Amino acid sequence: MRKRVVVVGGGLAGALSAKLLEDHCDVTLLDPKDYMEVPYARLRSIVEPDITERSLVPHADYLKRANHLLGYAKDVSDKAVVTSTNEELPYDYLIIATGSTYDGPSTKAERIQEFHAENQKLRDAKKVLVIGGGPVGVELTGEIVVDFPEKKVVLAHGGDRLIEFVGPKASKKAFEWLEQHNVDIRLQERINLDKFSSPSHVYTTSSGASIEADCHFMCVGKKIGASWMKSTFLSEKQDKDGRLGVDNFLRVKGRSNIFAAGDITAVKEIKQGYLAGKHAQVVSNNVKRLIANPSSKLCAYKPLATPMALISLGRRIAVAQVPIGTFLGRIPGMIKSKDLFITMTRKGLGLKS
Ligand SMILES: Cc1cc2nc3c(=O)[nH]c(=O)nc-3n(C[C@H](O)[C@H](O)[C@H](O)COP(=O)(O)OP(=O)(O)OC[C@H]3O[C@@H](n4cnc5c(N)ncnc54)[C@H](O)[C@@H]3O)c2cc1C
Q1: Which of 220, 255, 282 is the last residue of a domain?
Q2: Residue 138 is assigned to a structural domain of this protein
Q3: Residue 121 and residue 81 in one domain
Q4: Cα(272) to centroid of ligand 1, in Å?
Q5: In this structure, are 163 and 246 located in the same domain?
Q6: Could you tell me the strand order of the sheet in which 73-76 lies?
Q7: Would 312 be classed as within a structural domain?
Q8: What are the residue ranges of helices labelled H in 82-222?
Q9: 163 & 147 share domain
Q10: 319 in any annotated domain
Q11: What is the pLDDT of residue 259?
């Protein structure tokens, strides 16, 4: 009898794990939407919604044998996952890949409409406020100033430098590039949305200053997809943020048949999409080995020691922080900004282009 594998979460880690395993066992992918979204393309999708045709990849397009079930996991035992529609999904092996929560629409068509609405909101505005100067806020600001240079953009960030997850050199390069593109950058300023009065479009900052803008985009951290495990036996494996402790083989600590991949793991490294893909490779490889022989030697995951990052600034330029240095320009831009890894992600899922 073929072994049953349940994959919870259909983001980068879950989708790739399901794809890599579908020829080797009976795979069920549980995800609340009927598509996988290439996250790197999310901000370009606001200025150019048409790219979502390729960056939103229906699970049905790349899964040939695995079954996709629409819904959330709400409970789990050592034998089965319980879904939001009270279905029980028994498993021999479980892969948890609920990196971040999702409360958006369940179909690709609806998600495309959402991007068109965001695009219209942007087009209708003369002055835009971007809230949050992490990678998401900086990339969105870059997209706006390149595609809509006539718009005034204010970028408000609570920290004392932009993109704090990388070194100060990369922050400085991004800051200077944005300033050259006339972005009004307000550091150490949080926006109090309670005090936001929508008819007059005046936003109040933590220092009491006012910013006038026709609309805003929230670019602050996403919530970890961890709360569904809170009252299950896995809660004792969660750290204070809800991330799952794993061993060197990405097995949830103390569990021989439960793995975790992607942002939900407590692996001590930066949380990034390309690392989520690496986790998926290791986890699917290990599940295959265990299916072939339960006493197989497993392959270990080596966490990334030095954070690397590519932050795009519009369509041609990016800031790169790599082991040999920090650069801003067209070469890093060629790697990321043109296609935003859409083709690479699709090919990783077995699609031709
Ligand atoms: C706008 C943006 C841009 C980014 N750009 C980059 C970049 O350029 N480079 C980079 O390396 N990283 C980037 N990242 C980070 C990258 O997206 C994440 O590290 C990556 O998506 C993690 O993948 P994941 O599969 O672990 O989690 P996610 O992609 O968050 O997927 C989690 C999945 O789990 C599902 N889920 C959640 N809860 C449940 C539940 N209870 N039951 C069932 N399913 C559930 C969700 O629907 C979702 O499909 C970016 C992130 C964002 C938001």
Answers
A1: 220
A2: yes
A3: no
A4: 8
A5: no
A6: 73-76, 80-83, 88-90
A7: no
A8: 108-124, 135-147, 168-180
A9: yes
A10: no
A11: 98
How many whole angstroms from 99 Cα to the centroid of ligand 1? 5
Query: Mean pLDDT by 10-residue block, N- to C-terminus, for the chain (353 residues)?
Result: 97 98 98 98 98 98 98 98 98 98 96 98 97 98 98 97 96 98 97 75 91 95 95 97 98 98 97 97 98 97 92 97 95 95 98 93
Ligand 1 pocket test: which of 7, 8, 12, 228 has the largest number of ligand atoms within 8 Å of its C-beta?
12
| Domain count along the chain | 2
98 alpha carbon – ligand 1 mean position (Å): 8
Q: Are residues 231 and 95 in the same domain?
A: yes
Q: Which residue matches tokens 């704090």?
A: 164
Q: What is the spatial distance between Cα 223 and Cα 296, in angstroms, rounded to a whole number? A: 36
Say if residue 14 is in the same domain as residue 161. Answer: no
Contact 171, 163 (CB under 8 A): yes
Taking the centre of ligand 1 as the mean of its atom positions, its distance from the CA of residue 270, in whole angstroms, is 13
User: How many A from CA of 199 to the centre of ligand 1?
Assistant: 34
Range of the structural domain that residue 283 is part of: 4-32+71-101+222-302
Indicate the pairing of strand 80-83 with strand 73-76: antiparallel
- Whose CA is closest to atom 21 on ligand 1? 273
Question: Which of 118, 169, 170, 168 shows the shortest CA–CA distance to 144?
Answer: 118
Distance 258 CA to ligand 1 centre (A): 20
Say if 311 falls within a structural domain: no
Pocket residues: Cβ below 6 A from ligand 1 = 8-14, 30-33, 39-40, 42-43, 72-73, 97-102, 136, 222, 225, 228, 262-264, 271-274, 276
In this structure, the residue with its CA closest to atom 2 of ligand 1 is 39
Residues 319 and 174 sit within 8 Å (Cβ to Cβ): yes
Q: Which residue has a Cα nearest atom 4 of ligand 1?
A: 40
**CA nearest 6: which of 107, 88, 100, 62?**
88
CATH number reported for the structural domain that contains residue 198 in this entry = 3.50.50.60
